[in-house]
Amino acid sequence: MNPNNYLILAAILFTIGAFGVVIRRNAIIVFMSVEMMLNAANLAFASAAHTTGSLDGQVIAFFVMVVAAAEVVVGLAIIVTIFRTRRSASIDEANLLKY
Amino acid sequence: MTAALIGLPLFGATVLLLGGRRTNAWGHLFAVAMSASAFFVGVATFVSMLGRSSEDRAVHQHLFDWIAVGSFHVPFDLQVDQLSIAFVLLITGVGTLIHIYSIGYMSHDENRRKFFAYLNLFVAAMLLLVLANNYFLLYVGWEGVGLASYLLISFWQHKPSAAVAGKKAFVVNRVGDVGLSLAVMLMFVTFGTVTFDGVAKEASKGDSTSLKLIGFALLLAACGKSAQFPLQSWLLDAMEGPTPVSALIHAATMVTAGVYLIVRAHAIFDLSETARTAVVVIGAITLLLGAFIGTAKDDIKKGLAGSTMSQIGYMILAAGLGPVGYVFAIFHLLTHGMFKAGLFLGAGSVMHGVNDDVNMRHYGALRTAMKITYVTFGLGFLAIIGIPPFAGFWSKDEIIHAAFGQNIFIGLATLIGAGVTAFYMTRMMAMTFFGEARWEKGVHPHESPLVMTAPMMILAVGSVFGGMALKFLGNIDSWLEPVVGHANPANDVSNTILIPVTLAVVLAGAGYAWVTYGQRPVPVVAPAEVSLLTRAARNDAYGDAINEAVFMRPGLHLTRALVWFDSKGIDGFIAGLAGFIAALSARGRKIQNGYTRSYALTMLGGAALIAFVLFLVRL
Q: ∠ CA(B396), CA(B400), CA(B538), 5° rounding?
């Protein structure tokens, strides 16, 4: 199978994720979109590894997964805390940290 | 022995200043004792000098090496030679008399102890000035004199006018001091030494430009201390100080320093004709200017101050004549010291008797009320206008004679000066002691106590016999000759013609004043409608106005322009830059709007831009 197709899929997924981050207000959805972008990157790494025949890309993909897992823990904790205090998960309402 | 001369009054000043109020009770007596013992040490030194031949009369005393850096050596050495001892005797002798007089004059002043401490300091500084053996050490005494004069002129500092007068004296003197420091530096550069002997020995090796410049710098210094034109303005204001201070400044210390400096540096002036001419011109201008100012003053002390300016002008002029004049400059300085001290103390005595009023228009007919003051002041008067055989005649006649030998115009200036001197002194005499009484209400003139009149009597004796004693007994020409050199004036105008002519001019001046002020009633209020000349003289020949217009106003504008440039230009640029950055950052801060999604968009855009650029570069 042509490895370009994997890369195109990865690009599509990344774009969807990026649009999701920029457009959506719900923190959970934004979070899911971020995960989608990460995994799009993972897909690109894995396909690149397959094409070059080395393991480097796959190793990096594992690293990304581990970091993403840690990030999810912290990120979800923050979102839950914000929801508890403000009764809302909208990221536009949490805009106190500014000029 | 020599160090004791300076040490004694310095010790007195130290004890009185550090001792504080504890010394109030006996402080004045202690100061008088210190000054008097310095006088006795001076007399002892003088007597021992008389016993030696003229070549080895000078005594040197090495105290310690003051500065030794590379080839620059300044010893802290004192030297007493024939010139120094003349000054020492004048300073300590007249100074002690003024100390004694001050006991009475300042008896009601609560700061009398401090006054005496300053007087001692003044005497000590002046002695250091005349006893130093190099120009560097002389400078220390020079500055000490400046300090002491500042402290004493503004002694009654609660009066704003006195405080300002002290400051003015200090500032104007500073201008002259610049001259002295320049002279010392030039001497070191040119001759490699600053000792009197060294400079005298090396002087002939200096090129004419250096000699000229050193001469001018020394003249500037002398102008400052001796109140010569154009630095004369402080002297008249200095009358704000207590009268004994005026006497001390005018007769024994301070203003004589400039004459001393020029005579001491004769090696320089001997070799530079230009510098000598400048000295003569300054002396001639000042002697006429001072006399001119003296003619219109109603303040008895200011009248005398104008007279001092004029008489110091004679001395500077004589010093500028070169070897024919040095001796006469010192001769006149010594006789002047005696009669001017007497006149000032007399003026103080008069003021003491009329409740410290200085306006001569409120005097009149005081000869009956204050007999001793009248007689002593009168003798000083005869001495200053140069009636033979009183002191001033001998010295002033010599100067006029030498001046005519130099140049007919210089001679005429001294001759006119003598006539004007006679005019204003007679006017002073007439307004103070003769005519009808114009006393203010509640004023009961009375003679001063003995402690004040005794010094006046001694000085009056000096005014009568001082000139003759110095000329015939002391033989001042040959006494000073080993130090300053002396040449007889080459003269077309002989003394046999000159003396009668001078006397005629003097009598004419005195007679005119007597007719104007002695015979006619003197208005109590000074007439407002007067000629331009009189008005100029009343305003010190507009010396202050000229200083103000030439130096003060442009200086003020300059500082204002600089302040404007500093605050608007430099500060404006810096502040503008900071303001610009602050405004920029205030705008830039708006990007931090708190919306996570806009940050995400920025990041995305940035990442896309970088990716695009990388893509382009790759191509």
A: 70
Does the beta-carbon distance from A25 to B593 stay under 8 Å? no
Among residues 4-23 of chain A, which lie with CB inside 8 Å of chain B?
18, 21-23
Q: Residue A99 and residue B592: Cβ atoms within 8 Å?
A: yes
pLDDT in tens, B580-617: 999 999 998 888 888 888 888 999 999 999 999 999 98
- The reply to whether B63 falls in a domain is no
Which range among B229-238, B481-490, B504-513 shows the weakest confidence by mean pLDDT? B481-490
Q: Does B608 touch chain A (CB under 8 A)?
A: no
Contact B489, B401 (CB under 8 A): yes
Does the beta carbon of B158 lie under 8 angstroms from any beta carbon of chain A?
no
Convert the pLDDT of each residue in B177-220 to its tens digit: 999 999 989 888 888 888 888 888 888 887 888 888 888 999 99
Residues 6+ apart with CB under 8 A from B144: B121, B124, B125, B126, B128, B129
Nearest to A20 by CA among A12, A9, A29: A29
Mean pLDDT for B174-178 is 89
Q: What is residue B132's DSSP assignment?
A: B
**pLDDT tens digit string along B331-372?**
888 888 888 888 888 888 888 888 777 787 888 778 888 888
B589 in A contact zone (CB under 8 Å): yes
Domain boundary among B472, B507, B538: B538
The answer to whether A22 contacts B600, with C-beta atoms less than 8 Å apart, is yes
Q: Which of B590, B595, B604 sits opposite A18 (nearest CB)?
A: B604
User: Cβ contacts (< 8 Å) between A99 and chain B: which residues?
Assistant: 589-590, 592-594
Tell me: do B519 and B589 sit in the same domain: no
Among chain B residues, CA nearest to A37:
B604
The per-residue pLDDT for B491 is: 63
- CA nearest to B39, candidates B121, B83, B95: B95
Number of domains observed in the structure of chain B: 2
Q: Nearest-CA neighbor of A24 among A12, A37, A11?
A: A37
Q: What is the pLDDT of residues B36-80, one digit of tens each?
A: 999 999 898 888 888 877 777 778 888 888 888 877 788 888 888
pTM over 0.90: no
CB-based contact, B601 to chain A, within 8 Å: yes
Asked if residue B489 has a cis previous peptide bond (ω within 30° of 0), the answer is no
Q: Which two tokens stand for residue B192?
A: 């490699």
* Owning domain of residue B336: 286-538
Compare CB distances from A98 to B592, B600, B601 and report the shortest one's residue: B592
Domain boundary among B538, B566, B583: B538
B591: closest chain A residue by CA = A99
DSSP at B53: -
Same-domain status, B476 and B554: no
